[in-house]
Amino acid sequence: MTDHQPGRVPYAASGLFPAGPPRRPTWREPHPVTGAAVAAGGTLAAAWLVLFGLLGRDVAGYAWWTVIAGAFAWLAAFALVRFGDRGVGTGVAIVTAGGWSIAFAVVVVRWAVSADWPMW
């Protein structure tokens, strides 16, 4: 007794190309990252950093307030990426990193101009 019907050549898939329905279902993200969400998170983070940066009376104060505000913003970004809207969390993280870079540049420029480390 043979496995195939008369007149048909038995077919064995090589595995290179999928044959038939996929074995696993396609998973779609329930809340995909959008440009609007990233922009909203970035705008909120920029406002947050500006408000805290304005609390500083000098370069050191500005830098420390920016570091503290950025740390809280990144905690919020981590929570948003894990449990909330990933787009907003991404925007917050990107703008916070940019804000820290600006604060670092201000400190370095002041240090280069005055030859005195301004942070303490």
From TrEMBL:
Residues passing through the membrane, by range: 33-56, 62-81, 88-113
Keywords of the record: Membrane, Transmembrane, Transmembrane helix
Keyword Transmembrane helix: yes
Keyword Transmembrane helix in annotation: yes
Name of the protein this chain belongs to: SPW repeat-containing protein
